[in-house]
Amino acid sequence: MIKSYLLTPGPTPVPPDVLLGMARPIIHHRTPQFQRILQEAEEGLKYVFQTRGEVLIFTSSGTGAMEAAVCNLLSPGDKALAVQGGKFGERWTELCKAYGVEPVVLDVEWGKAASAKDIEQLLSRNKGIKAVLTTLCETSTGVATDIKAIAEVVKKTQAALVVDAISGLGAVECKTDEWGVDVVVAGSQKGLMIPPGLAFASVSEKAWKLAEQSKCPKYYFDFKASRKAMIKTDTPFTPALTLVIGLNEALKIIKQEGLEAAIARHKKMAKAIRDAAAALGLGLFSAAASSDAVTAIKVPEGIDGEKLVKTMRDEYGVGIAGGQSELKGKVFRIASMGYMNQFDIIVAISCLEIVLSRMGYKFELGAGVSAAQKVFLG
Ligand SMILES: *Cc1c(COP(=O)(O)O)cnc(C)c1O
Q1: pLDDT number for residue 118
Q2: Going by CATH, does the domain composed of 5-10+259-377 fall within 3.20.20.70?
């Protein structure tokens, strides 16, 4: 028998109360019964997004809300600064191109974080940039970006700051209003602990002004249509109501723990992973800016990285992620986001040790687990 443990950076494990909520008989969405749930979920989202503004809900994976941010804020021919230091940052550039928006690309070396200074320079050198497209946690490299510092810079310009927080929200700090982030995009299947299928976007006053002028084509992902329905506690189309019910349950769990406590829990889990890696003699891919939501660890010399991930999953039931694109076989990633606690991390490190040992990697068995335990004890 194999028992499964999910430590991938999305989808992430779903709490039993959320699963049970979604297992109830289906209801119709144009009913007071559903409206109550939707309203509660919308309030809960504001808490997690740390905003007083609207948080729009879309039925799609996270990328749908990224696409919505581009096509609702911009017009063909506009310039947008796209920060790309990994697979998800690249998506901003691709989305700009798809809508005829001219991307001004800030290429960041994979494993490094974009600096506010570089963004400031690009903004002053390229007049007329309407949006700065960034990533809170670059899931492909495990990099955390200092959005607060970037917001300080972007705030002073006409540009709107858009943050892909799909993997970071609920796991790491993202103070939408306080920092002055104009659009925060998130997805359901990462820090928010529900299955894939919902996407979210918070929209600031500055972003709404851009939305008024935007000429990119849009229909399903229209911010204005979404807001118009939201005012009546409705949705423009049939919502993935089962997932909204799950969302509402998940938000209750987050509220009960408290966002601060949840973020502290993620910090501790990520530190345990980093300390365990060090104790095993494994290097971090993004050592200088490692995210608390997912940790990318370098595959040691002489070890087949893809086989490592596959063996952990298929023979032990412990799901972690390999490297994407140019990092294939070179890193493996252990998530610490959402419905996870110290013992999920201990399981992952323990399994990693067993498989590394079987593959002939030399280290002191138990060293990683012990390092993680010390973090949780301390
Ligand atoms: C997972 C992820 C996405 C893509 O989300 P989908 O739900 O697969 O569309 C985008 N950005 C980041 C940072 C992610 O982690």
Answers
A1: 97
A2: no
Q: Is the pTM of this model over 0.90?
A: yes
187 lines ligand 1 (CB under 6 A): yes
CA distance to 76, 89, 327, 374, per residue, from 172 (Å): 34, 18, 24, 22
- The residue whose CB lies within 8 Å of the most ligand 1 atoms, and thus the one to mutate among 60, 88, 90, 140, is 88
Q: How far is CA 4 from CA 308, 316, 339, in A?
A: 16, 8, 14
| H/E element, 69 | helix 62-73
Closest C-alpha among 268, 293, 274, 318 to residue 4: 318
Rg of the Cα atoms in the chain = 21
According to the model, what pLDDT value does residue 10 have? Answer: 96
In the chain, what percentage of residues exceed pLDDT 70? Answer: 100
pLDDT in tens, 221-255: 999 999 999 999 999 999 999 999 999 999 999 99
- Contact 342 CB / ligand 1 (< 6 Å): no
Classify domain 16-256 by CATH number.
3.40.640.10
Per residue in 222-236, is it b (16+ CB within 10 Å) or e — as a string?
Answer: bbbbbeebbeeeebb
